[in-house]
Amino acid sequence: MVTVTIDGHEVQVAEGVNLVEAARAAGVEIPTYCYHPGLRVVGQCRVCFVEVEGMPRLVTACSTPVKDGMVVNTASDRVREARQAVLEFLLANHPLDCPVCDQAGECYLQDYSVEFGTDSTHMVDDRRRFPGRERNELGPHVIQNQNRCIHCTRCIRFTQEISETWDLTMKSRGNHAYIGTFDGEPLDNPWSACVADVCPVGALTVKEFRFRARVWHLDETPSVCPGCSVGCTIDIGHLEGIVHRFTPRENPEINGWWMCDFGRFLAEDLNGRDFEVPRLRGERGLQDTGWQEAMAALTELAEVGSPLRVVASANATNEALYLAKRLFLDRPGAEVVVPVHRGEEHRVKNAQRQWVAGADEHPNSTGARLMGFTTVDTEGLEAFLRGGRGPILILDGGAHPWLLSQEAARAVTGQKVAVAARKASPLTGAAYLVLPLASWIETEGTLTSSTGRVQLARRGLFPRGQAKPAWEILALAGRQLGVEVPTPLTPRTFFEAMAAEVPPFAAMTWRRLATEPGIPVLEEVAHVG
Amino acid sequence: MTAGGAMKPILLRARGEDKSRSISTYLRMGGYGALKKALIMDPAGVRKEVKDSGLRGRGGAGFPTGVKWGFVPQDLPKPKYLICNADESEPGTFKDRAIIHTDPHMLIEGIIISSYAIDAHVAYIYIRGEFWEEARILEKAIAEARRKGYLGTNILRTGFDLEIHVHRGAGAYICGEETALIESIEGKRGQPRLKPPFPAVVGVFGCPTVVNNVETLACVPHIIEHGAAWFAAIGRNERNSGPKLYGISGHVRRPGVYELPMGVTFRELIYEHAGGIREGHELKAFIPGGSSCPVLPADFVDIPADFDSVAEAGSMFGSGGLIVMDDSVDMVWALENLMTFYSHESCGQCTPCREGSDWALDILRRIRRGYGRPEDLETLERISRYASQGMTICPLGDAFCGPISSFLKHFRNEFEDYIAKAKPLPPRTTPVLPVRSGRGRFGI
After folding, report:
1. How far does CA B303 lie from the centroid of its chain?
2. FRET pair for A458, CA 20 to 30 Å: which of A24, B53, B137, B406?
C-alpha cells in the first residue's frame, strides 16, 4: 500500500493503481473517456489531466501510476483550463444532437461538459460529418453514428482484449479517422452489445433498446441475469411496468463489466403474461378462479395422490428451492427432480480477464444441487413425468425448454397436473390447475452462480394481476399442507432459515448480500458444476 | 576550424566522385576503416567515444546520441535493436536523402559500428515509402557490404553478427516519430505510443531499441576514425559540434544541401552558400529547421544555426532544413499551407491534435477566403496553446502549434489585414440537428 494525497485527501491505495482509481478511492472524480478499468490504458482522450507536485507538465491520470507520497491536484486552474480545452476540442466536431440522441442522459460527453466544460464554443466552422456512417448497422445489435464518435477506441480495445474477436478497427487518419469493421464483416460476436456499453457517447447504441425510453426515466433494478448459470450481475431497466433492457453491472468476480448478448436480449422475455389469475379445470375447461380455491385444489391434489411428483426449477431462487426442499424433499410422499437444460455454453470474462463459463442455461442450477435436489436432463424429465399415475406439480412451466413442447403435454395425458406459469404452453392447456407465476423482475431472492457465488436479485415490479412468485406459492402451500413455514413470509425470512440449515450457505446474511457483489458458498462447487 | 569557414566535406566527401555509391569507391576513400578500428575496441569504449564527441541527434530533437545509447539496459536478457530513421518526411528536409544518394556505405558503416556499441544484432533502416529509389540504393549497398564480409555472421572474423533490414514505410509523416515508426515495423497502424516506457527500454517487439537519424549514424564512423576531440572541435562549441548538412530551400538562388560546421550563421547560409535571395526581393522570414520549427523573421538572420542558438531565439534547430521566404510570401497562405500538411498527417489518435489541427486549418482557410473574424486569432492561439506542451501523446501537436503561434507572433498584422477586409460569416452549411431526408426518416 502507498499513501497519496489527492486534493488534500490522504488515501491509501494498492501499489501500481493509476491516479484515476486512486482519486476515486479518495472520493474525487477525474473525468475519463478512453480509460476503462477493464481495458488497456491508451491515454488518447487527454481529458484526465492532473497536476502532480514536482512534475513540470500536467500528466494524464490514467497512465500515471501512484507513487508513495505523491501529491496530486485535480482542481487547480491549470487543470481546469486544460480539461476545458480538451472538452472544447471534443465538442468542436460533435453534432450536439442530444435532443435526438439515444445516449443522452448516460452520455459522458454531456456529463463532463456540464461538470468540467464551458457553456460555449469558439467553433463556428462546419462540423465534420461522415455521410453514410450516421446510421450504420455495424452488426446485428449495434448501430453506429460516427458523427458523435470521440475516437476513444474503447470499442476497438473491447473486441481485441475482451471478446478477442478483433472485429473493429480505426480506419483512415487524423480528423477523418472512423471506427469500422474489416471489409464488410459484421460486428457479430457473442458480446457485441458491450461495445455500446463502453462507448461513452452516442456513437454506438444497442439496436434493441434505441428509442424505447429515455434513460433518465428508466428505473434500474439490481438483478442477476437469468440466462445461464454464470449469473452475470446486471441492472434491469424498466419503465411503467415494461422491461426495456439488461445492462451489466460491475462485478469483478463474475462478469467484470460485461455480459453476453444471449443474456442481454432476454430482457424482452420478461414482458407479457398470459395468466393473471389462477385457472382451475372445471366442467367447462380451465376457468379463472381465486387463490383460495386454487390453493385448496393444490392441497387436495397433493394429499390425494401418492407419490406426488414435483418438477422443481433451476430458474427459481434459493429461497423457493429451500421451501421446495422442506415441503417435498425432506418429507415422505413426494418425488422431486430439477430439470437442467445444458444448452449452448455461455461465457464471459471477469475483471481478471479469466473466462467464467456457465454449466447450463439456468441461473440457479448450482443452488439446486447444493440444496440436494436430483437434476435430470430432457430424457430423465420425460421418464419422470411418464413414470407414474399420481398427480404432478410443476413449479415453473418454463423451467426447461422441453416443458414448452407438445411432447410435454402428451407425456402428462391423463394425469392431474398443477403448473405455475406466466405464459401459455401446450402443458398449461392440458393442466388441471394453472397458477400465475411472477416473472424474474417480479421476484426477489438469491441465486447461486456456477462459480459458487450467491447474489441477490431485487424485485423491480409488483407482480401483474394476482401472480405470485414461486417462494410465495410454496409458502402458502406449505401452510395448507401443515408444514412449518417461518414467518413473516418474505424471501429474507426464508434465506435466513436456509443459511441456518443448509451448510454451504452458513454465515451468510441478507444485509451482506445487499451490499456485496456475491458471497462465495462454503463449499468447493467446481465438482458439482 | 572555425564556424562559418569553408570546410572540407566529411559527410558528403564523395559528392562528385564517379560511382560514389559503390563499395569500391568507398573503400578507396578509406571506408570501413573505422569499422575495423571499432571492432577491436570494446562496445563501452565506442559508446564513450561517441558520448565524448558531443554528437547530438540530427533528426531534430538534438538529444546527445551517446547518452541515448547509455539508456539501453545492458543486463536485460533480451535482444537489442538499432533502427535507422530514414523516414525524412518533414517538409523542407532532404539531407538524409543526400547521404543515401551520395554515400550509402557511410550510413551502413555507421549502423554496424552503432549496433556493435549497443550490442544489437539486427538493425532496421526504416525508410519512407516515397524513397523507393533510395531503398534500392541501400539494398544494393547492403548486398555489397555483405559480400565483402562487413555484414552477416562473424563480421571481419571478430565474432560480431549483424543483419540490416530495409523496411519501407507507407508514406505517413507520423511514422518518423520513433514510437510510431516502431509500431509500423511491428506491422501495426503507425501511431505513437504512450511514453514512458521509452524505446531504449521497451522498443520494437518489446525489446530495448535505439532509434537514430541517418545523419547521426553517418557521423559515427568519422568519430571513431578521427576521435571525439576532432569531432568536438568542429563547429561553434562542444555542445553544438560536428559537421552539419543544411538543406536550404525556398527563395534562394542556389537551393540544395550544404555541408558546413555546426554554428554557421543563417546569414552565411542564405547569402554566401545559397547565393542570396532572388533578384529584386528581400528576405522576409525563414524557418530554421524543417517546417515544424517556429518561423523567425529576417531580423534573426545573424544568429548561428545550431541547437542552442536557435532555441534561444524561440525556435528550434530541428533537422537543419532551412526554408527561406522572401517578401513575396503571404504569411497567412504560408501558414495555411503548413496546416494543410499537419492536419493531413495527424494520426487521429489523441484529441487535441486530431481536432485542433483540422480546426485551425478551417479557420485559416476561412480567413483567406475573406470571412475572418477578430476572435479567430484568439481561437488559433488557444488551439496552439492546448495542443502542444505535453497535451498530446507525441510531438506532432507541437509541430503544428509552433508554426501557428510563431506566425501569429511575428506576422500578426498580415492576419489582421485579412480580417479587417473580411465579410460577415456565412451561415453554417451543416445543421446542428438532423434534418428530415427524402424518405421521411431522420438520419439518426
Report:
1. 21
2. A24
Tell whether A237 and A309 lie within a shared domain.
no
Domain match, A378 and A419 both: yes
**Residues of chain A contacting B348 with CB distance shorter than 8 Å:** 151, 170, 172-177
Q: How many domains does chain A have?
A: 3
Indicate the residue of B346, B354, B444 with minimum beta-carbon distance to A135. B444
Q: Are the CB atoms for B134 and B57 separated by under 8 Å?
A: no
**Strand duo A9-13 + B80-86: pairing:** unpaired
Q: Which three cell numbers stand for residue A325?
A: 426442499
The residue type of A253 is E
B399 sits in which H/E element: helix B396-420
CB neighbours of residue B198 within 10 Å: 15
Facing residue for B443 by CB, picked from A41, A134, A174: A134
Neighbours of B307 (CB within 10 A): 25
Question: Contact, A143 vs A135, CB < 8 A?
Answer: yes
- Tell me whether A95 touches chain B (CB under 8 Å): yes
* Cβ-contact B173, B130 below 8 angstroms: no
What is the CA A430 to chain-centroid distance, rounded? 34
Using one digit for the tens of pLDDT, what is the confidence trace for B275-304? Answer: 999 999 999 999 999 999 999 999 999 999
| Residue A301 shares a structural domain with residue A312 | yes
Looking at residue A258, its amino acid is W
Instruction: Please report the ipTM that was assigned to this predicted complex.
Output: 0.91
Question: pLDDT over 70 for what percent of chain A?
Answer: 98
Residue A191 shares a structural domain with residue A296: no
- Same domain? For A375 and A421 the reply is yes
Tens digit of pLDDT for each residue in B35-62?
999 999 999 999 999 999 999 999 988 9
Q: Would residue A94 count as lying in a domain?
A: no
If asked whether residues A219 and A278 sit together in one domain, one would say no
Question: Is B354's CB within 8 Å of A126's CB?
Answer: no
Beta partners for residue A437, in sequence order: A468
Residue of A nearest to B342 (CA): A174
Tell me the residue range of the domain where A225 lies.
125-270
Closest approach of chain A CAs to the CA of B58, in angstroms?
26
In 3D space, the residue among B87, A239, A261 whose CA is nearest the CA of residue A248 turns out to be A261
Q: Do A43 and B363 touch (CB under 8 A)?
A: no
Phi-psi region of B348 (alpha: psi -120 to 50; beta: other; left: phi over 0): left
Omega prior to B79 cis, within 30 of 0 = no
**Do A357 and A229 fall into the same domain?**
no
The answer for residues whose C-beta is within 8 angstroms of residue B63's C-beta and 6 or more apart is B56, B57
Rounded Cα gap, residues B184 and B177, in angstroms: 10
For residue A308, the domain's CATH number is 3.40.50.740
* Cα torsion through A510, A515, A518, A519, rounded to 10: -60
Q: Are residues A253 and A306 in the same domain?
A: no
Number of Cβ within 10 Å of residue A99's Cβ equals 9
Contacts of B382 in chain A (CB under 8 A): 85, 122
The pLDDT tens digits of the residues spanning A426-435 come to 999 999 999 9
CA dihedral (B18, B20, B21, B27) in degrees, to 10, reads 110
Q: DSSP alpha helices (H): ranges in A464-517?
A: 470-481, 491-501, 510-515
User: Contact A460/A223 with Cβ under 8 angstroms?
Assistant: yes
Q: Is residue A98 part of a domain?
A: no
- Closest chain A residue by Cα to residue B377: A122
Q: Give residue B433's pLDDT band: very low, low, confident or very high (50, 70, 90).
A: low
Interface test with B, best of A77, A89, A176 (most B CBs within 10 A): A89
- Whole-number Å distance between alpha carbons of B65 and B81: 15
CB–CB contacts below 8 A, A to B: 126
Give the three cell numbers for residue B131.
Answer: 524513397
Task: Say which DSSP state A423 is in.
Answer: S
Q: Is A307 exposed, middle or buried (0-12, 13-18, 19+ CB in 10 A)?
A: middle
